[in-house]
């Protein structure tokens, strides 16, 4: 299925691995030129090579830096000043007990998972509206819909972004720009492994047993793959999804038990 994205330009944040890389791969395969960001140069270059091999007809530009800093954002925007697509992504804050978190922990979480995407949106959304097309996707978390106790920093910061997007997305859609959030559940990524390790330490169960219990507790009986996540992202970024905005799209293998 041709999503109608060939020739578009995208910035995909934190795309050296995991869900960000899955999104960059899916967009590149649809003919999108991608700028990918990441803090680790070696991992970022390896991801760029993988994407080029999968989509040799598109431009893949790695930009090393921390997207949660002003310098990191400036570097990404310098490499792609007029993106058609922006995929916001940043590593989630660590799990833990809120009693152990101080002011700097909360500021760090809000900076990475709320302020940074808002700043990138502020830098790109007007240009998208001027060009009558734009797609902004924020990778958040299923914890926005069903909070996870040990992820309080993430629950709070990402919910703030969700509220902001709910308002702005209704102002941009008439000019061809949609803004949506994709809420991943358990995906086979380093982030999941880190959370399972923390849960295992708290419960006293070994990591293998905790992983198996987590997997078997899902209706799908497996974790999601970055490729599956990327496919959803590519569709949401396409012209075919122009009537979808301000939504929180849950992709979790049926883990959320609610009707709504």
TrEMBL record:
<dbReference type="InterPro" id="IPR036291">
    <property type="entry name" value="NAD(P)-bd_dom_sf"/>
</dbReference>
<dbReference type="InterPro" id="IPR050259">
    <property type="entry name" value="SDR"/>
</dbReference>
<comment type="similarity">
    <text>Belongs to the short-chain dehydrogenases/reductases (SDR) family.</text>
</comment>
<dbReference type="Pfam" id="PF13561">
    <property type="entry name" value="adh_short_C2"/>
</dbReference>
<dbReference type="InterPro" id="IPR002347">
    <property type="entry name" value="SDR_fam"/>
</dbReference>
<protein>
    <submittedName>
        <fullName>SDR family oxidoreductase</fullName>
    </submittedName>
</protein>
């Amino acid at each position: 299925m041709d999503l109608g994205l060939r020739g578009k330009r995208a910035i995909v944040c934190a795309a050296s691995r995991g869900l960000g890389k899955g999104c960059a791969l899916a967009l590149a395969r649809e003919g999108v030129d991608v700028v990918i960001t990441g803090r680790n140069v070696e991992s970022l270059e390896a991801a760029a090579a993988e994407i080029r091999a999968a989509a040799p007809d598109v431009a893949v530009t790695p930009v090393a830096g921390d997207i949660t800093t002003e310098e990191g954002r400036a570097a990404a925007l310098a490499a792609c000043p007029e993106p058609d697509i922006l995929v916001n992504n940043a590593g989630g804050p660590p799990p833990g007990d809120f009693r152990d978190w101080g002011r700097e922990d909360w500021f760090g979480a809000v900076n990475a998972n709320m302020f940074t995407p808002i700043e990138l949106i502020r830098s790109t959304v007007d240009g998208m509206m001027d060009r009558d097309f734009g797609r902004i996707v924020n990778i958040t978390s299923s914890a926005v819909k069903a909070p996870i106790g040990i992820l309080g920093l993430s629950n709070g910061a990402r919910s703030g972004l969700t509220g902001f997007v709910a308002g702005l997305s209704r102002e941009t859609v008439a000019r061809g720009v949609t803004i949506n959030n994709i809420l991943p559940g358990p995906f086979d990524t380093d982030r999941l492994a880190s959370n399972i390790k923390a849960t295992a330490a708290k419960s006293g169960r070994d990591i293998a047993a905790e992983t198996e219990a987590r997997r078997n507790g899902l209706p799908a009986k497996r974790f999601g793959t970055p490729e599956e996540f990327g496919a959803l992202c590519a569709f949401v970024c396409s012209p075919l999804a122009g009537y979808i905005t301000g939504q929180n799209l849950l992709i979790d293998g049926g883990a959320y038990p609610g009707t709504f």
